[in-house]
Write a structure and sequence with these properties.
This protein is of the alpha/beta class. Helix content is 38%, strand content 23%. Helix 7 (144-153) packs antiparallel against helix 11 (207-223) and helix 9 packs antiparallel against helix 11. The protein is globular and about 55 Å long.
């Protein structure tokens, strides 16, 4: 069951989300779009948020149409992405004609979709042979302190869980291929706390729970032997891409 309260919680922290959430490795975006016939491709960024994925794909030279349901996130996307205006819409109801897209990408949002309805909408949007590829930046919890951060802040799926959870995109799509790409972001301890404040769990938690999470994160940063006394930390990510062609 999709928690719509959490799914639409991010607009309240849109500027911080845009600043502190990690970017997507270029190699991951190129892999997601490999085999798309049109160059430049017309790419729909579905659940586009503040435009982090949109800007990454624009940098590769493609045309991007961002679609996002949250007005706060759309406003941040428009402000941070000159020349681009996000459309109001959801994965289940995209305000674009049939066969619009060579590819549909989704950054950090596929798990919020009503998947059966969204798959039908994706098949409508994509040209035959077009690509659908949801992408996740997931903390690398093979690193001890990162796993502890996830436990304290209720940070959700691991990379392996994502690949195991989503086994197909419905009958209109060919079998899923999976790719994984590693990268790191450099953050101060305060940046790590600010990053946690952009997570749906924190945004929808009570004031008491927010304080508990923040205390735990600050204690981890101050006392863990891999982190204590450091001005910056390297937060490792595993970027998981699931890719399938429309039949």
């Amino acid at each position: 069951m999709v928690d719509h309260t959490q799914a639409l919680s991010f607009g309240a922290a849109a500027a911080e989300y845009d600043r502190f959430r990690p970017r997507y490795p270029e190699a991951a975006l190129r892999w997601a779009l490999a085999g798309v016939a049109a160059v430049p491709a017309r790419v729909v960024d579905l659940g586009a948020g503040t435009g982090i994925l949109t800007r990454g794909v624009l940098t590769l030279g493609h045309e991007v149409i961002p679609v996002e349901p949250d007005p706060g996130m759309r406003a941040q996307l428009d402000a941070a992405t000159p020349g681009t205006t996000a459309l109001a819409g959801s994965a289940e109801a995209v305000p674009l004609p049939d066969g619009t897209a060579d590819a549909v990408l989704v950054g950090q949002a596929y798990h919020w979709f009503d998947r059966e309805r969204a798959h039908a909408e994706l098949a409508r949007l994509l040209r035959p042979g077009g690509t659908f590829a949801p992408i996740w930046n997931i903390r690398d919890e093979r690193v001890g302190w990162v796993a502890e951060l996830g436990r304290i802040a209720h940070l959700g799926d691991s990379a392996g869980n994502v690949v195991e959870k989503y086994v197909d995109f419905g009958p209109e799509f060919q079998p899923i291929e999976a790719g994984e790409f590693e990268h790191t972001t450099t953050l101060t301890p305060d940046d790590v706390v600010a990053l946690i404040r952009t997570r749906s769990y924190w945004l929808t938690a009570s004031a008491e729970e927010r304080q508990r999470v923040e205390r735990g994160v600050r204690e981890l940063l101050a006392t863990h032997p891999d982190l204590a006394g450091r001005a910056t930390v390297e937060l490792p990510y595993r970027t998981v891409v699931l890719r399938a062609r429309r039949r």
